[in-house]
Amino acid sequence: MMAFKKKALTLVILLINIAVASAQTDTTFRKTGFTFGALPAIAYDNDLGFEYGVLTNLYWYGDGSTYPRYNHSLYIECSRYVAGTSLLRAYYDTHKLIPGFRTTADLTRFNDIACDFSGFNGAETYYRRSLTDEDSDDYLSTIFYAHKRDMRRAMLNIRSEQFGKWFWQAGFTLFDMRIGKVQKDKLRHEVPDIPTVYDKYVEWNIIGEKEADGGVDTYLRLGGGIDTRDNEAFATQGVWTEVLLAAAPSFLSSDDNNWGRFTVYHRQYFNLHNRRTVLAYRLGWQHKIWGDIPFYLLPHWNTGVLGAATSQGIGGGKTMRGVVRNRIVGDGSVMANIELRQIIYSFMLAGQNFSIGTNLFTDMGMVTQLHDVDKSLVPSAEHDLYFTNDKETLHTSVGIGLKIAMNSNFVLSADWGKALSKNDGTSGFYVLMNYLF
Prior knowledge:
Layout: H1 2-22, E1 34-40, E2 43-45, E3 49-60, E4 72-81, E5 86-94, E6 101-116, E7 146-160, E8 166-180, H2 197-203, H3 209-212, E9 214-227, E10 238-248, E11 259-273, E12 277-291, E13 332-349, E14 352-369, H4 380-386, E15 395-406, E16 410-419, E17 427-433
Antiparallel strand pairs: 1-3, 2-3, 2-17, 3-4, 4-5, 5-6, 6-7, 7-8, 8-9, 9-10, 10-11, 11-12, 12-13, 13-14, 14-15, 15-16, 16-17
């Protein structure tokens, strides 16, 4: 892990040196026509490990009159993590396909051979890093907090643009989730043959039989909001607020699931100095209104815009950096992210506009609506390995990041975060795409 961080730092320093040597100044830059950013998908996610593959983001700016806003964007990624998890994704975003509307569409297959699962309701369950550490005297298994999750997703969203900064939106998201025990023959290393947390939850009927293997679920989305940001990829001022209602009728589910949830996001950006120093924050609240949500969709956050391959939490590189992925899961929850962003240097290179920046951040989250956990079948001798006697409380992490952006849209991001509670994890390092929000 430390060796990887040193290599990443060396690469960043090399890029900065190249940039300084090639720097030009052009404050009137306007991109026109077609451009793309193509990279080998060489990244690192503390929850998934080292990633390799290819990705590209193709942009069409037309005559450049709306730069840095593009007319069309197509993001394509084909990658694999060393541990065996694989990702295939295509994401299309345009405001030209249907006049007066912004259309986004996503097709993804994310085959996660060891998806993090440590239980429900945050602080009411244990997470002990030592149980997955082969060098620890407490070691049980590297996959003790994991199950298999093969996610296939199709998503479509249409957002109005006729009312200025105000908008309404509608769409759907279809999930085909295939859940099960971790397939040990797919792992690159041997693990002890002991039950995982997921196995025990199924045995104790905390996870019911009909949802234990996953299922097909479709929810319909309707909402509205306001967006006054000056730029989407790197906003320096404005707000972006959304109110969303998701309803999953039983006739669109393979297991007659019928549920609804309410989601609110508020993001705000303050230009502190010359659009180069920005204070930004994001607040999110999600609440179940009716029904029983399958356990495999509890981590999912309803959204009309997918900035990453998944919209899940709370915990991990896209919600709480430094906290174990999916650590804070319940029927309803809140989260908050606060970042101080600084552009260090801007330059022209090979006809493209680049910038290098950094960010200091703190992330927070908490379950506000507990998931019903029936412990009647849990043997008293095993209770203390899986459950605490604590009440849910606020979870917090802090950290620092580095950003390299091309044409204010294509952003390479590196963040390091530290959890402030050992029951949430230790720390995490993430080399991903885009700002968190």
